[in-house]
Amino acid sequence: MQSTRYLVSEFFLLFILLPVSLALNYSIYIKAGLVLIGFAYIIYVLKRIELVSFRIKKDIDWIQFWRRTLIGFVIVASVTIAYVLYRDPKALFFVPLNKPLLFVIILFVYTLLSVWPQELIYRTFFFNRYERLFKSTNLFLFVNAIVFMLAHIFFRNTLVLVLTFLGGLIFGLTYFKFRSTFVVSIEHALYGNWLFTVGMGQMLAFPGMGGPS
Fold first, then answer.
1. d(Cα 212, Cα 209) in Å, to the nearest integer?
2. Average pLDDT, the chain
3. Rounded to 5 degrees, what are φ and ψ at 124?
4. What is the torsional sign of CA 28, 213, 191, 101?
5. Is pTM, for the whole model, over 0.85?
6. pLDDT for the residue numbered 213
7. Which residues have C-beta within 8 Å of that of residue 205, sequence separation ≥ 6?
8. What confidence tens digit (pLDDT) does each residue in 36-48 have?
């Protein structure tokens, strides 16, 4: 087990310095290289040091998970529909209704290449490495939400930062409750894909995912 000093340094490099650097103007190839190196390091640590299994847990309380997730989804869906109607009514469900192929591609790409890696990094790795450093669970979950928000700072979009902070709180609580990357990835994919579905893609800095111009 690494020392506290090592873990704090690792935390700073992976979850503060690297995300902030991605918002700066330098080569996209260097950025991609740094992200890949960081991700490879995280996978190595999970497998070789933390001895985390990537198998789906067998004792998940699916009834409890779906009950709390569906209640949360109804609330999120209601708020986001109202928000899109207020900001840009023409964008409401525009992409799935008018660009179905693009919509399906986005759902698959987002779920596989964005949701799962993010949850592996910001929940599985983060909890296994740093939970031991915090005496307060509430503070730990708050910090987790902050660094998850910071991971999206390169979008330079206030709405993205607000939503990822709130999402970080939700996903952190889910992982804390169920201790399953698979479970929290389902929840993350559900909420994230809903934002594209309802018509908030353009608002969240994803070109071509909004309503008619």
1. 10
2. 93
3. -60, -55
4. negative
5. yes
6. 53
7. 155, 156, 157, 160
8. 999 999 999 999 9
